[in-house]
Amino acid sequence: MIYRENGQFKSSYAADQQMLPIGQDRVFMVALLVFVFAVLPAVLGDYVFLSLLIPFLILTIAAIGLNLLVGYCGQISLGHAAFMAVGAYAAYNLVLRVPQLNFLLVLVLAGLVAAAVGLVFGIPSLRIKGLYLGVATLAAQFFIDWVFARVKWFTNYAHSGSVQTAPIEMFGWTIDSPVEKYVFLLSLLIVFTLIAKNLVRSHIGREWMAMRDMDVAAEVIGIRPVYAKLTAFAVSSFYCGIAGALWGFMHLGAWEPLAFNLTLSLNLLFMIIIGGMGSVLGCYFGAAFIVVLPIVLNQVPAWIGFPISTAMASHLEFMIFGALIVFFLVVEPNGLARLWAIGKEKLRLWPFPH
Amino acid sequence: MSAMENDRAGRIGGQILAVEGVSLAFGGVKALSDVSFDVREHEVRAIIGPNGAGKSSMLNVINGVYHPQKGTIRYQGREYHHMDPHEVAVSGIARTFQSLALFKGMSVLDNIMTGRNLRMRSNILLQALRIGPALREENEHREVVERIIDFLEIQAYRKTPVGRLPYGLQKRVDLARALAMEPKILLLDEPMAGMNIEEKQDMCRFILDVNDEFGTTIVLIEHDMSVVMDISDRVVVLDYGRKIGDGTPDEVRGNQAVIDAYLGVSH
Ligand SMILES: Nc1ncnc2c1ncn2[C@@H]1O[C@H](COP(=O)(O)OP(=O)(O)OP(=O)(O)O)[C@@H](O)[C@H]1O
Ligand SMILES: [Mg+2]
After folding, report:
1. How confident is the model at residue A2 (pLDDT cuts 50, 70, 90)?
2. d(CA A7, CA B6)
3. Of the given ranges (A6-10, A35-39, B128-132), which has the lowest mean pLDDT?
């Protein structure tokens, strides 16, 4: 990343609005794509895919969804795991009851169902904000948890309430090995990243950010709070719905109603706080962090000859999260994404600091 | 100078906005009591008065942020008991704010682009894919915004987050965002507050240019009397929520009630 930007002037607005305006960045991106699509699948073992990369990819999609609402539109939600649950059960029921549907279509429909539910639970945001909205979304979490535990139709009257999925088949391709899941999820994540990036630099994204930064001024400019907030809830829940369906089908395989509980909602929030509010890239950092930390805590002490118990590791995990969250909230509200940007800027100027 | 004034006087048209008998109270505080005045097309109309006189509240009534308890607002031939911010924006009234109300997490460019949002039509799906019409629309509006950026001489700060700009420039971005709406009426709440002499002169020049070149009607709140006397066609004077004077700068200057209101009030 040590290169110079000078001499690369833009001659049209279209060129100025490119996502990667600098030539070297585009080269880097192509190299990165080759690496993640061709090199990683060839060299990594199943364990890494199953316990690291697959959850990372899915959680990143969910984190992007939540970030669109919280980081870009400034509306808090403590119930986004519930919208993941809606997506997961919608997909489960669609696959169960309409088996001939293509899985991509199932995903989109699951996302739309979650979007509709998210939109309904977003209605309180029109009247309340901050802490009170947080509590209202918490109610959404408990209500939806309760519905999936009680209304047996959703779980197809399974005894324990636990549902099972079979490997997905799509266009004659059965996605069952970890590598195949990885490639499929990676492709989806790229698509959803591009869509999120497009949205936040279009007028809908500017409406969200305007609501977040100064709602009175936004209204005076003609932005309708109802439209801005509810679209943010809907799009955000759409992302989480799809992430939920993927979490169920590609990561868990079988799950119980409490798989999408408050803990997961809080984890999603931690991801965007640590990764960076209002940053799509930050969602990658945040999700990576949340996935990697427990594994590091479980393995590293043993490698360096300091084995700690699983219970101890999970205590440590909470403590580290807690400390980091306080750190980021107080010191760097824009999270790892901001630290990354600062680091890049330093490198760009290196070795001449002025 | 006088030629220009005559020229301006010739352009001033009929009544475009009228406030009639507006009263507004917050609990026990009467912010406005039975205030009436009108605004004519293409004029620069100043609202002056000591601190707390109700000037900002008046603008908030006009663009629907506050709903008065009494009175009506006549605009474009229709009467309203109160205005709705969205409708007001659609019908061509823009404003700037006394205490900056910029979107501080966004760049200068994005802030100004929000002024174009009302005119942007492509649906969310097109925006998500950023294809065809959505992209074309974005570029068209970007061109308009670039012209405003050139006009206000803030080219160098396009990509800067507004929060990092010095105060005087933020005021300019606030004006740019309002201009991006291509308003018929521009409400300016103390656009020159806290500026040094040069910045004030620049701002005066921009306001007059907007008024001359685009024919935009201007309603301006300002404390600096020399500015008010220089650039406004007519002046409304408020004191404790009441109107105590209304007329040309010269008439207002000679008005005893106005002189009394300002005596002992330091600005
Ligand atoms: N939202 C509000 N809630 C309660 N009181 C308000 C509100 N807005 C204005 N007021 C009160 O109304 C009165 C008029 O305020 P306003 O801001 O309109 O004065 P102003 O003429 O703009 O003063 P300044 O020159 O200081 O800007 C003040 O007494 C103020 O405290
Ligand atoms: Mg004021």
Report:
1. very low
2. 50
3. A6-10
What are phi and psi for residue B99, nearest 5 degrees?
Answer: -90, 130
Write the CA distances from A341 to A174, B106, B136, B209, B246, integer angstroms.
Answer: 40, 16, 30, 40, 55
Going across the sheet that includes B234-239, the strands are B93-95, B185-189, B217-221, B44-48, B234-239, B242-247
Across the strands, what pairs with B189? B221
Structure token pair of residue A287: 């999700």
Closest-CA distance of chain B to residue A56, Å: 23
Of A198, A206, A207, the CB nearest to B128: A198
* Per-residue pLDDT at B6: 53
Q: Structural domains in chain A?
A: 46-349 (1.10.3470)
- Strand A168-170 to strand B44-48: parallel, antiparallel, or no bridges (unpaired)? unpaired
Give residue-wise pLDDT tens across range B184-209.
999 999 999 888 899 999 999 999 99
B45-92 pLDDT, tens digit per residue, is 999 999 999 999 999 999 999 999 999 999 988 999 999 999 999 999
User: What's the length of chain B?
Assistant: 267
Within the 175-204 window of chain B, which residues sit less than 8 Å (CB to CB) from chain A? Answer: 177, 181
pTM (2 d.p.)? 0.90
Distance from CA of A184 to the nearest CA of B (A): 20
Tokens matching residue A256: 């119980």
User: Are the C-beta atoms of B30 and B23 separated by less than 8 Å?
Assistant: yes
Structure tokens at B33: 């009591």
Q: Assess contact for B177 and B188: CB atoms under 8 A.
A: no
Query: ipTM beyond 0.95?
Result: no
CA separation (Å) from A247 to A164, A168, B214?
13, 13, 56
CATH class as words, domain B1-92+183-267: alpha beta
Domain residue limits, chain B: 1-92+183-267, 102-182
The C-alpha atoms of residue B119 and residue B117 are separated, in whole angstroms, by 5
Q: How far apart are CA A238 and CA A228, in angstroms?
A: 15
